[in-house]
Amino acid sequence: MRYVIITTATNDKEEATKIAYGLVQNKLAAAVHVGQVESFYTWQNKLENAQEYTISAKTKKANFSKVENYIKANHHYILPEIAMIPIKYGSKEFINWISNNVV
Q1: What's the CATH number for 3-101?
Q2: What's the Cα-to-Cα distance from 6 to each of 71, 80, 81, rounded to whole Å?
Q3: CA nearest 85: which of 2, 6, 31, 8?
Q4: What digits encode the pLDDT tens for the residues 1-26?
């Protein structure tokens, strides 16, 4: 598994856009999807509900640390979600496109 999707979320649309644009501009991700979702989670022992924007970056596994550092530097949450999902299978064309568009 060389290719992954790295995800995070924020409640600020401008921040989501900034993170997405920066990841692609810096060639840390070939593409980033931003979508609005309703989130339910526990924070400080309290059930929370919020409108958030998910950020899904398509990249190489080797870029995880760089993407993680970029997200942390540009995110206002104390504890941002940063998770890596392996792309176990993908079309040859899609995988090649990721490979050709990231460092």
Answers
A1: 3.30.70.120
A2: 10, 12, 10
A3: 6
A4: 799 999 999 999 999 999 999 999 99
